[in-house]
Design brief:
Radius of gyration: 15 Å
Order of helices and strands: EEEHEEEEEEEEEEEE
Shape: globular
Strand content: over 45%
Distance between the termini: 41 Å
């Protein structure tokens, strides 16, 4: 499985982390913008643990992050907001994609770091020197190095339980 970056605009909306549900959700700002990126074959998800990256099956574009993720504050660390560009990320793979059938992103030892002062969360494999960072959706940045996904940066709006 390889990831490639293409130019274009990121998907605008709001990434939320619901502390009572221990989960991320993404609401597109404009339903039409999201619909334009969805083909007729449905969607699937890439998994990093329980975090899911929504993927359109027809185009193989990674759209946004969502899903149950209780370890959001895994390790408190100082994180600067990533310097990234807006764009789109696509997957090439021999793997056949089917609606609702998720599959794991390759890589062992994903680590989670969280900065309470900035609200940024990073789920990453390593501190790589040659990572290209691309903002695919509001609050969601992917780190790609030599065609591999090496990090996911998330900056959600935190919603506390009532």
């Amino acid at each position: 499985m390889k990831f490639s970056i293409q130019g274009g605009s990121s998907l605008e909306g709001v990434l939320t982390y619901d502390e009572s549900e221990y989960g991320f959700s993404f609401s597109a700002q404009n339903g039409e913008a999201l619909s334009e990126r969805l083909g007729s074959e449905g969607v699937t998800s890439l998994l990093i643990g329980t975090l899911q990256l929504e993927v359109d099956i027809e185009s193989r574009e990674v759209l946004f992050a969502w899903g149950y993720f209780p370890n959001v504050r895994g390790f408190v660390s100082k994180l600067s907001p990533p310097r990234c560009k807006s764009g789109r990320v696509f997957i090439s793979s021999e793997h056949s994609f089917e609606p609702g059938v998720s599959f794991e992103v390759p890589g062992d030892g994903w680590r989670v770091e969280y900065d309470p002062s900035t609200g940024w969360i990073i789920i990453h494999l390593k501190n790589a020197a040659d990572v290209e960072l691309v903002r695919i959706a509001s609050g969601t940045v992917l780190g790609i190095e030599n065609g591999d996904l090496t990090s996911v940066w998330l900056n959600p709006v935190f919603v506390a339980e009532e």
